[in-house]
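Appendix B. One record, verbatim.
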Amino acid sequence: MESNAEECALSSPSLTRYDAPGDVRAMVLVLHGGKARSRAVVTGRSLTWQRARGLARSLGGPLHLEGVGVWVLRYRTVGWNGDGADKIDDAHWGLDRIRAEVGQVPVVLLGHSMGGRTACRSADHDLVRGVVALAPWLPPDEPVDALAGRALHAAHGRRDHITRARDTAAYVERARDVARESSFTDMGDRGHYLLRGAGAWNAVTLDGVRRVLADV
């Protein structure tokens, strides 16, 4: 069942909801990509946000049968802009909305590109059980401390010319020191935008979400 709860004010983050019918045992919050620097507002024409919605719709069918809802967050602005503080604030806002409307349920943060970086930085919220990161932007100096006690499952293709698979693999290794589990999936010759081999991306994503929620 799909319901759209987007807010009108572009100065605020917003949510698009793909709600599971009946009792909800867990949630996935999808975080879309962006740019290194931009103060532009994220509109409904944003391709990164549209891709996140497409991913959420693909996951909604099987996850709804398992009592898992899927929401997509739309940030206020496009860019990371230095420390990403507003992206982390937006993610925490979305998590707080889940608590207010669904309850104290476990959440998986699912992020693509910059969304993967946002997810890893936001994982210390008390609802979060783990992160699934697809072709994430995780520079060599990216901290791992927010993942303490959480799970991390990352996937990256070797033909990605926007972000780097080797950076993701190195991040996963660093995260092993703090995360309860950490894994890296090599997506072979696939690129950044989750288009080539979409079925494989969807399969590894679904598997990651299920692994995070295995004991829920």
